[in-house]
Amino acid sequence: MFVKISHLYAENFPQLTAPFRPIWGPKASILLVDDKLAAQLNLSPDEILAALQSDDVAEKTVAMLYAGHQFGQFNPRMGDGRAALLGEVSGQNGMMFDLHLKGSGATPYARGGDGKAGLGPVLREFLMARAMAALDVPTTGSLAVIETGEQIWRDVPQPGPVPGAILVRSAASHLRVGHVQYIATMGDDALLSRFIEYVLNRHNMRADAHENMALSLLQNVMERQAALIAKWMSIGFVHGVMNTDNMTLSGETIDYGPCAFLDEYNPASVFSSIDRRGRYAYGQQPAIGGWNLARLAEAMLSIIDDNVETAIEKAQSVLSGYTALYDAAWRDLFAQKIGLFEVHKDDGDLIKELLTLLAKHRVDFTQFFAELGPIFLGEKKRDADNFAAGHFGMDLAVWYEWKNAWQSRRDLESMDEIRILDVMRRANPLRIARNHHVEAAINAYIYKGDDGPFKALYAALSNPFEQREEWDIFDAPPQMNSPPFQSFCGT
């Protein structure tokens, strides 16, 4: 008995969809399944493909229509060009999840593309989604990778045919800021109000957070996005393409195209091949989050208040809380990374001083924080001098000045060192999806037919806080003077 797939979004908002029948390819077969996610969604891995290919599901599959700001420029009509919403399923906890395809052919919104996906980008998103979930980051999930049995042409990073693939993903929903923006272009306030009510109910948001539903939605989305982006920053994650159509209303990370993780700490880090001006650099992400939220507010002004100026004032009143929300979330996460738990007024300055030091000396972000607790509070105390020299070279005076201030601040904590070390270990992963390891594993899979490195990396990234000798290789940063890493969206 296949899991029941409903079609609530498609039935409620037909004007925001286009019918679409997925193209599975000549020899569609399951290549990989995220067993944890399948269990969460009450799906049997053996039945996934047959369930998704059923005629009933295919006849009700839709491409979602939305707008979006792409690198600051508004595109009033975008939508799922190579993606499709199969429907919704009820998970183990009773929560509703979307089932979504990526790479299943050109939809009416494909804008000239073939709507298909190469195996490389699909493997990358499958890996990244699991890595982010294991790091406790709200994220869309990658349920399965499906081989299509055909070759498709791509010109980046190198021109040539590549194996075709489809990603099956899930999410609390795939509703985005761009959905609200598109409805605003329609000038249909009744539809906009109904859509907002749907989002509030779908995600169990506080509908009474403000005087009307639009402000309540803005407040809820703002809180979730502030927490999400602070989490990205705490693990060195760079999304790479924070367009408004890639900002979910649920507060989940979506679209692992040109994303990457920091090796050395550098706020100006950009990995995406198409972000030539650094709009979505690591250090820009909090500000872009606020900018995107302002675009959400603009799209809802007509139902915030009949008077435009009054509506703007009310929206700005809500948005004025974003910086404080983000700063508090950021401070709490980074404070845990250095073993501080009782909030003191100067903690933010202490953290910023450390990050300035890391940037100056091009210190590896993940490695530094993973070593900090064991070196100064744990079993590796004898290695403190080697740790300092290895990260900061000859500039030890500045490091020791910060370390002494950190020690003095830690002395004010009521928690003992054993408990502090335990929390630090849970705040600082041993490994992240390092770009060179991800690329090597994917290339071995595609070009050598060797799935061993990919499966080993997948297992290691599924357990980022666990020490195992066979996973040590994935903890290592790239060699010094390695060429800059570039990521591509894979379309």
From TrEMBL:
GO terms for molecular function: AMPylase activity; ATP binding; magnesium ion binding; manganese ion binding. The keyword Transcription regulation does not apply. ATP binds at G79, G81, R82, K102, D114, G115, R169, R176, D255. InterPro entries: SelO. It catalyses: L-threonyl-[protein] + ATP = 3-O-(5'-adenylyl)-L-threonyl-[protein] + diphosphate; L-seryl-[protein] + ATP = 3-O-(5'-adenylyl)-L-seryl-[protein] + diphosphate; L-histidyl-[protein] + UTP = N(tele)-(5'-uridylyl)-L-histidyl-[protein] + diphosphate; L-seryl-[protein] + UTP = O-(5'-uridylyl)-L-seryl-[protein] + diphosphate. Its EC number is 2.7.7.-, 2.7.7.108. The keyword Iron-sulfur does not apply. Keywords: ATP-binding, Magnesium, Manganese, Metal-binding, Nucleotide-binding, Nucleotidyltransferase, Transferase. It comes from the Bacteria. Its cofactor is Mg(2+); Mn(2+). The active site is at D245. Mg(2+) binds at N246, D255. It holds the Pfam family SelO. Belongs to the SELO family. Nucleotidyltransferase involved in the post-translational modification of proteins. It can catalyze the addition of adenosine monophosphate (AMP) or uridine monophosphate (UMP) to a protein, resulting in modifications known as AMPylation and UMPylation. This is Protein nucleotidyltransferase YdiU. The lineage of its organism: Bacteria, Pseudomonadati, Pseudomonadota, Alphaproteobacteria, Sphingomonadales.
